[in-house]
Design goal:
By secondary structure, the chain is mainly alpha-helical. 65% of the residues lie in helices and 0% in strands. The chain contains 16 helices and no strands. It is globular. InterPro entries: ATPase_csu/dsu_sf (IPR036079), ATPase_V0-cplx_csu/dsu (IPR002843), V-type_ATPase_csu/dsu (IPR035067), V-type_ATPase_csu/dsu_dom_3 (IPR044911). Belongs to the V-ATPase V0D/AC39 subunit family. This is Vacuolar-type H+-ATPase subunit C/Vma6.
Length: 336
C-alpha cells in the first residue's frame, strides 16, 4: 500500500502566497479598458510593479514581463512538497516541462536562433536553465534529440521515446505526429505515476484527464477532413463521444462533463472554436480555483488550484495587454 502523501506543510506555505495573485477587485478594474490602460494599471499594482513600467511601450516586452511573473509564481512550488506529495505536485509542473521540450525541439527542427529557443522555455520544473541552454545550442534536430535524451528530459520515460519518434519524423516529415507521440509518452508516464500514488493524487489526475479531453475535443472539431486526427491519450471522454460532438450530438461528452453543456450548445449555433476554447478553459479554471478555496485543505486541490490560478492570470493578462480580450469577459473567471 502506498503511504499517504503529506500535503500539509506545502499547502500551508502555498496558501501564504495566494495574496500575490490577482483577485476579484483587480480583474474588475482591468475589464473593459484598453491594452494601454491595462499596462498602466498593472504597472501601478503591487503584483506587477516589479515587472512592468510605464516606459515599456513594446508589446513584446510587456508580454515577456507577464511570462517572467508566471515563472516567479511557479518556480519553487515543487520544493514546498516532499516525498510522494512532491511527486504528485511535480506532475503539475511537468506540464510545463513538456511544453518546454516541445518548444526546444521545434526550434531545432525549424532552425530558430538559440536565443529564440531558450526564450520559449519556462524552466519551472525539471528543465533548468543549464540543460535548456545546452539543448537550445544544438545545431539541428538530431543533435537536440540526442542532447535531450542524454539529459533524460523532460523525464526518463519520455526521453526513451524520443529517438524512435525522431526516426519516424525523419521518414515522414510529420511534425504533428512527432509532437503528439512525445506528448502521449509524457502523459502516459504522468498517469501511471498518479495512479500509483492513489486517491491523494486524484485532483492532479483529474486535471490531466480534463486537459486531454479538452485538447482532443478541440482537435476533432477543428479537423476539416472529418477523419479522426491524432489525439492525446484518452482522458474520460472516449473517441466515439468526441466524434458524436463533431456530428452535432454533444450529449455523450456532456454526460462526462456536465459543465460542458453551455459551451458545446453555444458552439452548435455559432461554430466559434476560439470562443469554445475559452469557455472550456474558464470552466476548468473556475473548478480548480473553487477547489483551492473550498476543497480539502490537506490534499492536492491546493497546489492544483494555485498552479491553474497563476496560469489563468498570465493568459488573461496577455489577452488584455494585447487588446484581444473584447470577446471575453474576465469577470467569467471570478469564482463565487
Amino acid at each position: 500500500m502506498t503511504p499517504r502523501p503529506d500535503f500539509i506543510t506545502g499547502n500551508t506555505r502555498l496558501r501564504a502566497r495566494l495574496p500575490a495573485l490577482l483577485g476579484p477587485v483587480d480583474y474588475d478594474q482591468l475589464a473593459g479598458v484598453s491594452g494601454g490602460a491595462v499596462a498602466e494599471r498593472l504597472a501601478a499594482s503591487s503584483a506587477y510593479r516589479a515587472y512592468l513600467n510605464r516606459d515599456q511601450g513594446d508589446d513584446r516586452q510587456l508580454l515577456d514581463s507577464v511570462g517572467r511573473r508566471l515563472r516567479d509564481l511557479l518556480r519553487g512550488v515543487r520544493g514546498l512538497y516532499g516525498g510522494i506529495a512532491g511527486a504528485a505536485v511535480g506532475v503539475l509542473l511537468a506540464r510545463h516541462d513538456l511544453q518546454d521540450a516541445l518548444a526546444l525541439l521545434r526550434g531545432a527542427r525549424t532552425g530558430q536562433p538559440a536565443a529564440v529557443r531558450l526564450a520559449a522555455v519556462m524552466g519551472v520544473g525539471a528543465i533548468d536553465h543549464r540543460a535548456a541552454a545546452d539543448i537550445a545550442a544544438a545545431s539541428d534536430g538530431t543533435t537536440a534529440v540526442i542532447r535531450m535524451a542524454t539529459h533524460r528530459l523532460p523525464d526518463t520515460l519520455t526521453a526513451r521515446a524520443l529517438p524512435a519518434a525522431w526516426e519516424r519524423y525523419e521518414l515522414t516529415g510529420d511534425s504533428d505526429e512527432f509532437e503528439t507521440t512525445i506528448a502521449a509518452a509524457a502523459i502516459d508516464g504522468w498517469t501511471d505515476r498518479l495512479e500509483w500514488i492513489g486517491r491523494a493524487a486524484r485532483p492532479v489526475l483529474e486535471l490531466i484527464q480534463a486537459e486531454c479531453d479538452r485538447a482532443n475535443l478541440l482537435a476533432v472539431l477543428r479537423d476539416p477532413a472529418l477523419q479522426t486526427p491524432r489525439l492525446l491519450p484518452t482522458g474520460l471522454v472516449p473517441e466515439p463521444a468526441l466524434l458524436a460532438a463533431r456530428r452535432g450530438d454533444p450529449q455523450p461528452a456532456i454526460a462526462t462533463y456536465p459543465n460542458w453543456r453551455q459551451p458545446l450548445e453555444r458552439h452548435l449555433h455559432n461554430k466559434d472554436l476560439p470562443a469554445l476554447e475559452w469557455d472550456l478553459d474558464v470552466q476548468l479554471w473556475r473548478q480548480a480555483v473553487r477547489g483551492l478555496r473550498r476543497g480539502d485543505p490537506l490534499g492536492a486541490t491546493v497546489p492544483v488550484g494555485y498552479v491553474l490560478a497563476a496560469e489563468c492570470e498570465a493568459r488573461t493578462i496577455r489577452l488584455l495587454l494585447a487588446g484581444t480580450a473584447q470577446a471575453h469577459d474576465v469577470r467569467d473567471l471570478l469564482v463565487p
